[in-house]
Amino acid sequence: MSSWFQRERKAIETPPEEERKIRTEGLWVKCDGCRAAIWKKDLEQNWELCPKCGHHFRLSAAKRLALLLDEGDWTEHDAELASSDPLSFVDTKPYTERLRESQEKLGMSDAILTVEGRMNGRPVICCSMEFGFIGGSMGAVVGEKVTRAMERAAGAKTPLVVVSCSGGARMMEGVVSLMQLAKVSAAAARLDERRVPYISVLTDPTTGGVTASFALLGDLNIAEPGALIGFAGPRVIEQTIRQKLPQGFQRAEFLLEHGFLDAVVERRELKNYISSAFDFFLA
Ligand SMILES: [Zn+2]
């Protein structure tokens, strides 16, 4: 009997599971790398890297620029470009509504930021994709901004860095979205003609149309550890070729081993790595 009372009292002292969850919700995240619970603040102060195992969490477009560029020394280009919803597309809700929600939430007009700044003192043009904006998908705006960044880089002979983080083409813009692939690829060829170095950084995830265009067209294509990189998803490929895919297929390390990437570079090393690559290209 006494043990029954004790259990009862204990139950009253500790708040039920549900309540505890609500109280701490949003303060902790579980690491996909080591399963440890991490204090969100610790992640934020550590460039979204797990302090225990170094797992690379997703970084926002703006934070990415802060990581790569010299402090407070950049100008944004084409910030006003926004999609006109060319197909008047509606799925579970109108595309215009999705756009407005993302624009309000993130303070960006579309899924990419383009800036001109400095990296260890050297002028560079840098594009940084935002996964939070409709899955970092590439529609007309992303395609146009990357194209303009490439043209600007080619014109001024300023080295270019594009950081990809994307689920692929933007379904809601249909063929307009697919047309970006050709446009961006043509602009990348002009960079090459002008001998302006272009470094592509592939982060988790870089898939679909972005992989099929600018993400793998760099003079150097480098990825962050563990990044998912591919065109179609593994399930689609397995069903198409009717074969089981090897372990770690479409992860950065696997692609490096098979010659699709030039390097896998840890986030905190990225700035200096890219910087010395430009030293080498421009020597
Ligand atoms: Zn971890």
Could you describe the 3D structure shown?
It is a single chain. The protein is α/β, with parallel strands linked by helices. It has a single domain (59-281), classed as 2-enoyl-CoA Hydratase, Chain A, domain 1 (Alpha-Beta Complex). The chain has 10 helices and 10 strands. It has helices spanning 2-13, 17-24, 40-44, 61-68, 95-106, 140-156, 174-193, 234-241, 252-257, 270-281; strands spanning 28-30, 37-39, 75-77, 112-119, 122-129, 160-166, 198-207, 220-223, 229-230, 263-264. The strands form 2 sheets. Strands 3, 4, 5, 6, 7, 8, 9 and 10 form an 8-stranded mixed β-sheet that branches. Helix 6 packs parallel to helix 7 (174-193). The longest helix has 20 residues, at 174-193. The chain is globular and about 45 Å long. The model has no long low-confidence stretch (mean pLDDT 91). Zinc ion (ZN) is lined by residues 31, 33-34, 36, 50, 52-53, 55.
Précis, in short:
This protein has helices spanning 2-13, 17-24, 40-44, 61-68, 95-106, 140-156, 174-193, 234-241, 252-257, 270-281, and strands at 28-30, 37-39, 75-77, 112-119, 122-129, 160-166, 198-207, 220-223, 229-230, 263-264. With 283 residues, it is of the alpha/beta class.
Supply the helix-strand structural class.
Answer: alpha/beta
Number of helices: 10
- Oligomer designation: single chain
Order of secondary-structure elements: HHEEHHEHEEHEHEEEHHEH
Distance between the termini: 83 Å
Radius of gyration: 22 Å
Number of strands: 10
Q: What percentage of residues falls in helices of 4 or more residues?
A: 25-40%
Can you identify the CATH superfamily?
A: 2-enoyl-CoA Hydratase, Chain A, domain 1
State the low-pLDDT regions, or none.
Answer: none
> In the CATH hierarchy, what is the class?
Alpha Beta
What is the CATH third-level topology name?
2-enoyl-CoA Hydratase, Chain A, domain 1
User: Which outline best applies?
Assistant: globular
**Count of the domains:** 1
Work out the strand percent: 15-25%
Ligands (ions, cofactors included) = zinc ion
Mean pLDDT, all residues: 91
Largest sheet: 8 strands, mixed
